[in-house]
Design brief:
Layout (H helix, E strand, L loop, with lengths): L1 H4 L6 E9 L4 E9 L5 E8 L6 H5 L11 H4 L6 H16 L7 E11 L2 E9 L5 E8 L6 H6 L21 H17 L6 E9 L4 E9 L5 E8 L6 H5 L12 H13 L3 E10 L5 E10 L3 E10 L3 E13 L12 E10 L2 E10 L8 E11 L6 E16 L3 E16 L1 H5 L4 E10 L2 E11 L4 H4 L2 E15 L10 E11 L7 E14 L10 H6 L3 E18 L43 E14 L2 E13 L20 E12 L2 E12 L9 E6 L6
Parallel strand pairs: 3-5, 6-8, 9-11
Antiparallel strand pairs: 1-2, 4-5, 7-8, 10-11, 12-13, 13-14, 14-15, 15-16, 16-17, 17-18, 18-21, 19-20, 21-22, 22-23, 23-24, 24-25, 25-26, 26-27, 27-28, 28-29
């Protein structure tokens, strides 16, 4: 295997054992004749008419050598991989209706000792379509009702794939059989069996399908028994089950229940089975679980272009029980303790989650935290001491509703050098002019009017309530290829909630994911080429406005830590962190704004396994006032402009330690406070945090 992996598959290894029976031991000598490294020059196909050589080469992993071969392994012959590739070819043709496909012969040619040609000779056969579809043995349900109520293992209604005229494929037949079986299972006919008889017509090149059904009798749940849960409470398991005693023994709900228990990540194994009882039509449901360790201690370090170097330690318990000392496990709750210390920040977090608050599917999240953030500015440090409590409810049709109350004390600590750059008093002089001679006849000192930014230094107690309504249809959280995430998030601080700051915030965020493969048939080569290409489009807009006493009596002023900012890894990547938008004219310090918008488009493609290349465009701006798109204007007549923008390229790395992203953004339109030089941005994740 080692030589084969190195591309030296013609190496011979001959073991020579030598046994000493008197001493009861032996030695083995391996005689190795190393071959030269062999590269696959080309993979050819003969006899293929429906699909080109280029299309078939994409089906298999045994490929000719290319300049990325040192990274991808292309060009090396591996016996195990080659056997899998032959099966992939058979499956590929089968899933395109060529059920008679055969690999007639495979030849290996060595024009030179270090070069290899692989020649496949294939027989495609004919493409078969579905002829007639009939049912036999269904006495309880008519054929139309059965077809109309087919469903998958999640209980989602499905349509039959193999209808008259459709291309016949084994995969679609398996899915249709599952849909028919699940229909009967959902009605309590757990002993029902559905088999398909395939009747080929070689002349017409069709396959007639006859579904032979043995229905059995309907069953109900008498009782549910939980076994193997030595740590997890029965109630934690039972509340995840989708059926109850006395109900129809719905096998689809049983499968959903098993999926829920597996997703909890509490068990090594989850098994469900029915158990006959003495009562006719009654079955017991047996749920057997095998517990696993749910506690975890993690140590790590990371780096990003915003946080710089960070180290952390985190202790988590995924099956926590607040009321079960001294082990505190088995209640289905979650607890987290995290300490994070870096060159630009410190975070200490204690979190607790109850996923079934008040015995309902209502998640309760609480958190206590202290944060010391130095990366926000070179001129001040921001510390936050606070806590939050929130409720989250999953609603029908992919909607989620969240309400969170937060109470925190935010302290803005200005650097002395920065603070001293502003005069605290103004010396006023009274002059008298007599015959052209100017004399000072009096002086007085008055306090200087400091910028509002300076007046916000110190501690502010913020009491706020945030609501969030989101709609999420993404098919994958890490690398979605379709679907969207839309979120509306209003927030109210102060007023009836108390605290020292009165303001409110409105924000709408949306992200759409799409792949060009959706334009083509899954059976086409174009579909395979585009299936991992992803277009991500993001659009955000928000407003924040003061009311009442504003920030500690500064009427009309929103605290600087709750204003909008743009720039950096997760917004405009061609600019430094927070550098897009209003600034203090004398120092260039970002002061945030009351209105912002942001838009982004990113197109990413796979390069090699675990590596993607991205091309992106970002645009947006922060404006000083609420409900206004008027840019910040300065005394010299310049302004930030209506928008700043950039384009750039990036890499997305799916490493064992987690997904990473590296971007290089190049400004297109900037203001006088930002230059046109490119920026490297480094962070975590395939997609940007929402």
């Amino acid at each position: 295997k080692m030589y084969e992996k190195a591309g030296m598959q013609n190496t011979t290894v001959d073991p020579k054992p030598s046994i000493n029976e008197q001493l009861g031991r032996g030695t083995v000598t391996f005689e190795i004749v190393e071959s030269t490294k062999v590269r696959i020059k080309k993979v050819n196909f003969e006899g293929n008419e429906a699909f080109s050589d280029k299309r078939l080469r994409k089906v298999i992993k045994t490929r000719s050598w290319n300049w990325l071969g040192w990274l991808t392994g292309a060009g090396k012959f591996k016996e195990d991989q080659f056997e899998e590739d032959k099966e992939k070819l058979r499956d590929f043709y089968g899933e395109n209706g060529y059920v008679d496909f055969e690999i007639k012969q495979v030849e290996f040619e060595f024009p030179r000792t270090n070069r290899m040609f692989i020649d496949f000779t294939v027989s495609e056969g004919s493409q078969f379509r579905v002829g007639q579809v009939t049912f036999e043995g269904n006495t309880v349900f008519p054929q139309g009702e059965i077809i109309a109520n087919m469903r998958d293992d999640r209980g989602v209604m499905t349509r039959p794939r193999l209808v008259p005229g459709a291309i016949f494929t084994p995969g679609d037949l398996e899915k249709d059989l599952l849909g028919l079986q699940n229909f009967y299972g959902s009605q309590g006919y757990i002993d029902a069996r559905v088999q398909a008889q395939k009747i080929p017509n070689v002349v017409a090149r069709t396959i007639d399908l006859k579904y032979v059904i043995r229905e059995g009798t309907k069953s109900f749940v008498e009782k549910i028994e939980i076994k193997g849960n030595t740590k997890t409470k029965d109630t934690v398991i039972r509340r995840e089950l989708a059926l109850s005693p006395g109900e129809t023994f719905d096998m689809v709900r049983v499968k959903i229940s098993k999926q829920r228990l597996e997703q909890m990540n509490y068990f090594e194994k989850v098994d469900t089975k029915d158990d006959p009882t003495d009562a006719p039509g009654q079955r017991n449901l047996i749920v057997a679980v095998e517990e696993k360790n749910t506690g975890n201690i993690a140590l790590g370090a990371g780096y990003s272009s915003v946080d710089k170097l960070v180290g952390y330690i985190e202790v988590t318990q995924g099956n926590f029980d607040l009321f079960n000392p001294p082990n505190f496990t088995g209640g289905g709750q979650k607890a987290r303790l995290r300490a994070q210390i870096g060159t630009q920040r410190q975070d200490y977090i204690l979190g607790f989650t109850e996923p079934w608050f008040l015995g309902r599917r209502l998640r309760l999240d609480t958190e206590l935290y202290y944060r010391d953030l130095q990366y926000l500015s070179d001129n001040y440090t921001q510390t936050i001491l606070g806590g939050s409590i929130g409720l989250t409810k999953q609603l029908p049709h992919n909607f989620t509703l969240n309400t969170t109350y937060t109470l925190q004390e935010v302290d803005i600590i200005l650097n002395n050098a920065f603070l001293n750059s502003f005069a605290t008093t103004i010396q006023n002089y009274e002059y008298l002019t007599n015959n052209g001679v100017v004399s000072i006849i009096g002086t007085n000192t008055t306090p200087a009017e400091l910028p509002v930014f300076i007046q916000q230094a110190g501690k502010t107690l913020v009491s706020s309530l945030t609501w969030s309504l989101s709609h999420d249809t993404r098919n994958n959280l890490m690398l979605p290829t379709r679907g969207h995430l839309v979120q509306f998030e209003p927030m109210l601080a102060g007023g009836p909630l108390g605290g020292q700051a009165d303001f409110y915030q409105l924000e709408v965020k949306a992200a759409q994911y799409w792949s060009p493969a959706n334009l083509f048939s899954p059976a086409s080569g174009t579909y395979d080429f585009f299936k991992e290409h992803i277009l991500e489009i993001i659009g955000n807009v928000g407003v924040v406005s003061a009311y009442g006493d504003g920030d500690r009596g500064l009427t009309g002023v929103v605290p600087i830590f709750n204003r909008w900012y743009l720039g950096g890894m997760y917004s405009l990547r061609g600019f430094e962190f927070r550098e897009v938008g209003p600034k203090q004219p004398l120092t260039g310090e970002p002061t945030g704004g009351g209105t912002y918008w942001f838009g982004s488009a990113e197109y990413s493609v796979p390069v090699v396994p675990r590596v993607r290349f991205a091309l992106f465009f970002d645009a947006g701006m922060v404006y000083p006032d609420s409900y206004s798109f008027t840019p910040q204007e300065y005394l010299d007549g310049t302004s930030t402009g209506f928008y700043n923008s950039n384009w750039g390229i990036g890499l997305r790395l799916n490493l064992p330690i987690g997904p990473l992203r590296l971007d290089y953004g190049i400004p297109i339109k900037t203001d006088q406070f930002n230059d046109g030089g490119g920026r490297f941005q480094f962070g975590v994740g395939y997609t940007r945090d929402f």
